[in-house]
Amino acid sequence: MFLFLSKVLDLFLAPLTWALGGLLAGTVLARRWPRGARALLGLGLAVLLAFSSEPVSAWLTRATEASAVSTWREEVVYDAVIVLGGGLDPSASERTGQPEYNAAVERVLRGFELLRAGRARQVLLSGGSLDPRPEAVVEADVLSRQLQDWGIAPERIVTEGRSRNTRENALESARIIRERGWHSLLLVTSAAHMPRAAGCFAAVGLHPDTLVVDVRASNTPWSRMSWLPRAGALSQSTEVLRELAGRWVYRVRGWTAP
User: In the chain, which residues fall in CATH 3.40.50.620?
Assistant: First the structure.
C-alpha cells in the first residue's frame, strides 16, 4: 500500500502536474469566474516557467545535496561496499536484454572502482524491482552480472534483490551484514539520496562510512544562469522535490535516524 501511495504522491509533487492543474482549472472556469480563471492560468504558467528555469532548479538541487557528506577513508579496506540500486533503467534493460542505465549509474561505477582498487573486499548490491511479474528485471542481479563482466570475481559479489525502496534497502542489507559478520562498511549512493539512505541505515543500527556520487548541483554563478524554460531543468526540479518529500515522509514514519 505504501508503495502505491508513494507513486500517487510522486504525481502530485510534480510541478508539471501543478501547472497543468492551474491551466485546466482556469480554462474550465473562464466563463463563470473570469478573474479567478485568469489568476489560475497565470499561476499555472508561472509555476511551469519557474520550475523549468535553471536558477530555480539549481537552487533546489544545491539545497537537497547540501547535507550529503562523504566520510569514507582512503586508507581503509572495507569489509563491504554497499551499492544501492536506482541506477538501472529496468524497462529499457528488459527490452534490449542488456544493462541500460540512467543518470545514477555512478553508483555501480564507483563500487566497481573500489573493488578493482582493493578498497573493499566484497560488494553488497541492494536493489529489487517494483514489477511483480516473475520475469521482471531485478536490479541487483543485473548489476552482479555487469560486475562479473568487468572482471570482478563472483565470490566478491553479494546480491539483495528483495528491497523495493530505501527503507527496505536498509532492512535487507542489515540482515545480510549481520549474517556475514561484516564490520567496516561503506555506503555508496547519489548525493541527493545519501541523507535519507544514511538515516535509514542508522535507524536499523548501522552507521557505515559514506561515499557521495552522482552530484548534480551546479557551480555555475547565478548571473550566468538562464531563466528560459528547459525540459531538463523541470525534470531536475521534479526529482529533488520528490526526494525532499521522501525525507519528510520517512521522518514522519520513523524510518530514519540522525
Answer: 78-213
According to the model, what pLDDT value does residue 133 have?
Answer: 87
Spatial neighbors of 200 by CB under 8 A, at least 6 apart, are: 166, 167, 169, 170, 250, 255, 256
202 DSSP β-pair partners: none
Calculate the alpha carbon distances from 122 to 13, 14, 119, 143 in Å: 38, 38, 9, 14
H or E element at residue 124: strand 120-126
Distances (CA, A) of 110 to 101, 199, 213: 14, 21, 8
Q: What would the grid cell of residue 62 be? A: 544545491
CATH number 3.40.50.620 given to 78-213:
yes
Q: What is the mean pLDDT of each run of 10 residues along the chain (258 residues)?
A: 57 87 90 90 94 96 96 97 96 94 96 98 95 90 97 98 95 97 98 98 97 93 91 95 93 92
Other CB atoms within a 10 A radius of the CB of residue 4 amount to 9
Query: Rounded to whole angstroms, how far apart are CA atoms 181 and 203?
Result: 19
Locate 216 and state its grid cell: 548534480
Q: Enter the C-alpha cell of residue 74.
A: 582512503
CA–CA separation, 55 and 223 (whole Å)? 9
Cβ pair 40, 22 in contact under 8 A: yes
Name the residue among 121, 91, 94, 124 with its Cα closest to residue 107: 124
Give the pairing type, strands 157-160 and 185-190.
Answer: unpaired
Give the residue from 146, 142, 215, 206 showing the smallest Cα distance to 170: 206
CA distance 177 to 72: 18
**CA 56 – CA 62 distance, rounded (Å):** 10
CA 207 to centroid of chain Cα atoms: 19
